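User: Sequence in, structure out. Go.
Assistant: Echoing your sequence, followed by the structure tokens.
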Amino acid sequence: MDIERLDLNLLVTLDALLVERNVSRAAKRLHLSQPALSARLTRLRELLGDPLLLPAQRGMIPTQRALELQAPLHAAIESVRQVVATGSPFDPATAKATVAIAASDYVQYSVLMPLVMA
């Protein structure tokens, strides 16, 4: 598999599809249109060389390969979510930064000067 062609959105899509087992519900969950989600599923099938989910009378049935990917994929996505969610929130009162503002002479005098003098 060419890892360079794989993006995180495709893996999130696969995770949602494996949970929902329905393209329309997974699309709604990811705030995508059904055709957009179907296109992502097509890309996943090409990249992984497996149909992943097969149409059934109600929803979709995962292939053996999809079932093998489900648990480790979900764990990896949750790990990424935790990494992104951690960290301290921005506090402007304690932030140390240099800000450059381009402004005309009038704006410098009428707007910026009072801010600097405060």
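User: And one key feature?
Assistant: The chain has a mean pLDDT of 91.
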